[in-house]
Design brief:
Length: about 350
């Protein structure tokens, strides 16, 4: 398909671009920046790529750049390989989780989301891996982002940060994870974890928006995993606009914890690496008066000759370190299962 040939050419030319496919759609969107400068976001319409906490807030503006769309044809699934990670992180991560649980029991915070970076010493075929990603996860937001000064990221995220159309908005509270089966049974820990996220979002917006609606939590399938998800919607008021809502929501307790500042402080001091754009957000900002943003989960970064896969899980007082490590392993399979060797 021609769009993938173009992507390969842009990679060879080191040209900034993003290609993305929205959930449950078969239309590819390709936005190509005409220069290689880093354009920092300052409220202009474009595709935004935002870090978790610290880092460049990048935008590829729609104006002045090349934007094209087309229908995806049926993609041939390329055979993937399960590469071996560089180091055994099990003990390190379980110790981190135990430290998080201890901090919760000491009253430092109610929940913290802890993560790790899985390093695979392999070179992958970017385009073929991206093709696998698109065809494997039709209900996710699938993207490939490249900037010579930022790096190459791709992912298939199940989590919407916010969708805004004129003054109406929708967001989700998504948390709790287990391997998908037909008869999913949720433990108290997972139900509590998801309720934390719902309660936080509602508390932050209820006095600032009108017509607020919250649905009951339902089980959704995301690749080989199941999550609990509630929809939250409402109408923005004249003194609480899109940017106010985005700043209020990011980062949600689904990627950092509660209270937010205490959880972020613990993450920065204890995770042992920088998340960069993992658990940040990305997507269309103010395109035709609509904003469509997603949390950057189930993602990888290609860095020199290695692939970094980022995975995390929500920690509460009832968390079991070994089970949380297994959850991160399960989450890593979303990206491991689509990797194609060079």
């Amino acid at each position: 398909m021609q769009v993938f040939e173009e992507i390969q050419a842009f990679l060879s030319q080191q040209k900034p671009f993003v290609c993305y496919v929205k959930p449950n759609e078969t239309v590819w969107n390709l936005l190509v920046q005409q220069t290689d400068e880093i354009i920092e976001f300052s409220n202009q319409a474009g595709f935004v790529f935002m870090p978790f906490h610290e880092g460049k807030q990048v935008v590829i503006p729609f104006e002045g750049n090349s934007f094209s769309q087309g229908n995806l044809e049926k993609l041939e699934q390329k055979s993937s390989e399960n590469f071996i990670s560089e180091t055994n992180q099990k003990e390190t991560f379980e110790n981190l989780v135990a430290k998080g649980v201890s901090a919760i029991k000491q009253g430092e915070f109610d929940k913290v989301v802890l993560s790790r970076k899985i390093i695979l010493k392999e070179q992958i075929s970017i385009v073929e891996t991206f093709q696998n990603l698109i065809s494997s996860y039709p209900t996710a937001f699938r993207y490939l982002f490249f900037h010579p000064n930022i790096g190459l990221w791709m992912g298939a995220t199940p989590e919407q940060l916010v969708k805004i159309n004129q003054n109406h908005f929708e967001t989700v509270a998504l948390a709790g994870t287990q391997l998908y089966s037909e008869n999913v049974i949720w433990a108290t820990k997972e139900i509590e974890e998801q309720q934390f996220v719902t309660d936080y979002i509602v508390a932050k917006v209820k006095d600032k928006v009108t017509q607020l609606m919250v649905t009951d939590a339902k089980t959704i399938k995301a690749g080989n995993l199941a999550h609990l998800k509630s929809f939250i919607s409402g109408v923005l008021t004249t003194d609480f606009q899109a940017n106010d809502l985005i700043k209020t929501l990011h980062p949600t307790p689904a990627v950092c914890g509660l209270p937010k500042e205490n959880a972020i402080d613990f993450i920065i001091k204890n995770e042992g690496y920088k998340r960069k754009y993992y658990a940040g957000f990305l997507g269309e900002y103010n395109k035709d008066n609509q904003t469509d943003l997603f949390v950057n989960l189930r993602c990888l970064e290609v860095e020199n000759d290695v692939v970094n896969i980022y995975v995390g899980c929500g920690i509460t007082k009832d968390s079991n370190p070994e089970k949380e490590f297994i959850e991160t392993e399960n989450k890593s399979m979303t990206m491991r299962n689509v990797l194609v060797s060079k």
